[in-house]
Write a structure and sequence with these properties.
Length: 346
């Protein structure tokens, strides 16, 4: 953990990292755009200056119609997954929890696959896949919640087990559906791997409000999230309505995850890595950890997407593969550390 004096620098550094990541994301590609030209075009669109000379119409179209919505969507998705991961880790008091722990990602994937196979993807103004993913993700969360409810209370361990069981059933259903998918299996496969190749202003508008509202609510609830680290009994003694708070934060985390997954497909490990790494930098206080996770998750996803489309041009690697290559070893490291800790306690 950093010294108290250094912790104050984390948020400004993360803000600078995000700004630099966005600038690199819109500048690097098959048609390079210099950072200076990008800044001049941004200033022009914000009506701060006149139209910059020496910048072609094609460059303007590439920047504002292709790269900028993709980069901003990557930032929104990363922020949503990282914030949801932070919330779930606090709620479940488990550093290895992530948004997929209650089966939300699997539920969203199943809904998208069904819509792709039925040819209803053009529904709702071309957002049929995203809408279906969003709806089934919420339905999955409600199902897990009801399965985990025993009497008036919900035990965290029961909730986790219900999430794992439902996710396993949904994964089996997805495999069965893909067996009969025929020519659509390629599009389904790439959607399951996660990607931002179809990013647009419309997809950004459909997901950003939910992620931003959820992140704002999570930051507002940071003090209560700190109480959950003390245990449910102690938190209740300090005045927190534990069961109501768990339901509320479960809904917030689910909404952010569903919005992110509906826009980008299944992208794993962002919600696991980001809060865990930043917890080492700023500590466990969610009043600092949540803003850091929002900025860190957004930066991580923008850079991961940049790597996905730049490492092997002209081939574009699914961004979910990039995050899995980063997050898989990280998860194994956490698992090994947990085993060592358990052995030491024994």
């Amino acid at each position: 953990m950093l010294a108290p004096g250094h912790r104050r620098l984390v948020l400004p550094l993360l803000s600078a990292l995000l700004a630099g990541s966005v600038l690199a994301g819109v500048a690097i590609g098959a048609v390079p755009i210099s950072p200076w030209d990008s800044l001049r075009l941004f200033a022009w669109r914000l009506h701060l200056t006149g139209r910059p000379g020496g910048v072609s119409v094609a460059t303007t179209v590439i920047l504002f119609q292709l790269r900028l919505p993709r980069v901003l969507l990557a930032a929104v998705v990363g922020a949503g997954l990282a914030t949801a991961g932070t919330v779930f880790q606090a709620l479940f008091r488990n550093a290895m929890a992530d948004p997929a722990i209650i089966g939300v990602s699997s539920g969203a994937a199943l809904g998208a696959i069904v819509v792709i196979l039925t040819g209803a993807g053009a529904a709702a103004g071309g957002l049929g896949v995203s809408a279906a993913a969003f709806i089934t993700a919420l339905a999955t969360a409600i199902l897990v919640y009801r399965l985990a409810r025993l009497g008036p209370a919900i035990q965290v361990a029961t909730l986790l087990l219900a999430g794992v069981a439902v996710a396993a059933i949904i994964s089996a259903l997805m495999s069965l559906v893909m067996t009969f998918s025929g020519q659509e299996i390629r599009s389904i496969y790439f959607w399951l791997l996660g990607g931002l190749g179809n990013a647009s202003w419309r997809s950004l508008e459909s997901s950003a409000p939910f992620v931003l509202a959820g992140a704002a609510f999570a930051v507002w609830s940071a003090a209560d999230l700190n109480l959950t680290a003390l245990g449910e009994e102690r938190a209740g003694q300090l005045g927190l309505e534990v069961e109501r708070f768990k339901r509320r934060m479960l809904a917030v985390g689910t909404l952010m995850t569903a919005a992110a997954v509906s826009a980008s497909g299944v992208i794993g490990f962002v919600g696991l890595m980001t809060p865990h790494i930043l917890r080492l930098a700023v500590g466990a206080d969610h009043r600092k950890l949540l803003p850091a996770s929002i900025l860190g998750g957004a930066s991580l996803m923008v850079l991961a997407d940049l790597a996905a489309r730049s490492v092997l041009p002209p081939v574009e690697i699914p961004v979910g593969v990039v995050t899995a290559l980063l997050g898989g070893p990280f998860f194994l490291y956490l698992l090994r550390r947990e085993r060592r800790s358990a052995g030491a306690r024994a």
